[in-house]
Write a structure and sequence with these properties.
The protein is an alpha/beta fold. It has one domain: Rossmann fold (3-Layer(aba) Sandwich). Strands 5-4-3-6-7-8-9 form a seven-stranded mixed β-sheet. Helix 3 packs across helix 5. 44% of the residues are buried.
């Protein structure tokens, strides 16, 4: 059983206004991709937050979840998702399942999502949420996300939801030619930047600074 609230149909209906306000905030921030907005509208964020923070489920703020982790604020989720430039047939690797909220959104926009989480309890709760939402194109693994998932690489897209000290070399190796990785980079939480990393067909790497962010650190074994 999930350790917190599973929304009933009535609570989902009550949250409709909050979701609309979240979508307006996303649009005002510059996210106008219809597919991304539709995916975020279809995933009930209240399912992924702790009971104590339910009233803030659609606020544009990061919220604490177990194991010292966080669920990112909706605008950051939206920008990271938009930056991946997803297509329906793509295979995506996500580093840091966390609550499973970002994973669920990625699953709406791609063929398959491979997601890795180091915390056993978080992964178990996320898996229950995926089952509750009937998301069948998500494959989970417990382990060190910095090492990626070589057995099923390469990936069309990679999303990292924890801050690395530099662009992780092993993940870059597992990115397909023509692929995109979105990763927060920085040793100090006050100096983290979100990077969009592109690998050309010839293997050349280019980066784009998207925004300043605050993520928990990417921990390596």
């Amino acid at each position: 059983m999930l350790y917190q609230h599973i929304p009933t149909q009535s609570s989902v209906n009550e949250g409709a206004g909050d979701r609309i306000r979240m979508l307006m905030k996303l649009r005002n921030s510059g996210i106008n991709n219809v597919e991304v907005l539709s995916a975020m509208e279809s995933v009930p964020r209240e399912l992924f937050v702790e009971d104590a923070f339910l009233e803030h489920a659609y606020d544009d703020t990061a919220l604490p979840i177990p194991s010292g982790q966080t669920i990112s604020q909706p605008t950051v989720v939206g920008w990271m998702t938009w930056a991946l430039d997803l297509e329906p047939r793509m295979r995506v690797l996500e580093i840091g399942t966390g609550s499973g909220y970002q994973t669920s959104i990625l699953s709406k926009l791609s063929r398959r999502v491979y997601t890795i989480e180091r915390h056993r309890d978080l992964l178990a709760m996320a898996e229950e949420r995926f089952a509750h939402l009937k998301l069948t194109n998500i494959v989970t693994k417990r382990g060190d996300g910095s090492k990626g998932w070589r057995d099923v690489a390469p990936f069309d897209r990679i999303m990292v939801t924890a801050a690395a000290s530099e662009i992780p070399a092993e993940l870059l190796e597992q990115l397909s030619p023509g692929g995109i990785m979105v990763v927060p980079v920085g040793n100090n939480v006050a100096d983290q930047i979100l990077l969009r990393v592109e690998k050309s067909q010839s293997g050349d790497i280019s980066t784009q600074h998207l925004m300043n962010v605050r993520f928990v650190p990417l921990v390596q074994d």
